Amino acid sequence: MFRLQGSKVLAVDMTGDAVKAKNGSMVAYDGQMAFKKLSGGGEGIRGMVTRRLTGEQMTVMEVRGQGTCWFADRASEINLVSLQGDKLFVESSNLLATDAGLRTGTSFTGLRGASQGNGLFTTTVEGHGQAAITSDGPAVVLRVSPQYPLTVDPGAYIAHQGNVRQSFQSGVTFRTLLGEGGGEAFQIRFEGDGLVYVQPSERNTIAGDV
Q1: Which of 49, 43, 57 has the alpha carbon at shortest distance from 100?
Q2: Fold of 2-198
Q3: How confident is the model at residue 112 (pLDDT cuts 50, 70, 90)?
Q4: Mean pLDDT to the nearest integer, 146-155
Q5: What's the pLDDT band for 88 if we cut at 50, 70, 90?
Q6: Distance of CA 32 to the CA centre of its chain
Q7: By 3-state DSSP, what share of the chain in percent is helix, strand and coil, each rounded to 5?
Q8: How far, in Å, are 60, 129, 190 from residue 100 at the CA level?
Q9: Which residues have a Cβ under 8 Å from the Cβ of 167 and sit 6 or more positions away?
Q10: Least confident piece of the model among 31-35, 84-88, 112-116, 133-137
Q11: Cα 17 from chain centroid (whole Å)
Q12: What b-and-e string marks burial along 121-152, b requiring 16 or more CB atoms within 10 Å of the CB?
């Protein structure tokens, strides 16, 4: 159902089924489509509460119909992720579209979310189906294994999946290691077995030059 046309446009072929996508991301469609705005950042009462706590204004829309719909977001690169009953953790600003059958919610992330200014929660996508996530530049998928934990700059982090644990390392930065000073006040450390998606560009964070 999901396919890429180039690296920056997502095409979704529908035969009466539906897809959930970032509000305003539709760029074209053929056939017969119906659009409905939904509340984002989680579903139900819990989603409403977490959005109020974090100040996130993420909105999503449901697209249902017969034909093909094309989506894009500010010329960002698009990456397809297949879920087989597992859970994807993704920054809300990087989630472009999901199969309607996938469940979305929120998960407490603590320090990382606060430092990035994206709130204390991150978006979760769970079930069987496909999701499309965006990145500033071509994303790199890095493997985390028990023998090789991974440390990531929070500004470059997009998403992760698998049996992975997060922890935070503060006080030492990539830039201070290089003798440049400034940069992030901490990094994210991933341990376990899974995949981490990173982008070759850093978003601005509240941590700033510490």
Answers
A1: 43
A2: Double-stranded beta-helix (3.60.160)
A3: very low
A4: 90
A5: very high
A6: 29
A7: 10, 55, 30
A8: 11, 9, 29
A9: 188, 189, 191
A10: 112-116
A11: 23
A12: bbbbbbbebbbbbbbbeebeeeebeeeeebeb
Torsion of CA 167, 170, 173, 176, to 10 degrees: -160
CB 139 within 8 A of CB 77: yes
Q: How do strand 9-22 and strand 59-71 relate by DSSP bridges?
A: antiparallel
The residue type at 132: A
CA–CA gap between residue 131 and residue 165 (Å, rounded): 22
3-state secondary structure of 24: coil
The answer to pTM > 0.85 is: no
Per-residue pLDDT at 102 = 92
> What does the DSSP assignment read for 110-160?
THHHHHHTS-SEEEEEEEEEEEEEEESSS-EEEEE-SSS-EEE-TTTEEEE
Are residues 121 and 110 in contact, defined by beta-carbon separation less than 8 angstroms?
Answer: no
The token pair that represents 38 in the structure block: 């939904």
The residue behind tokens 């690169």 is 77
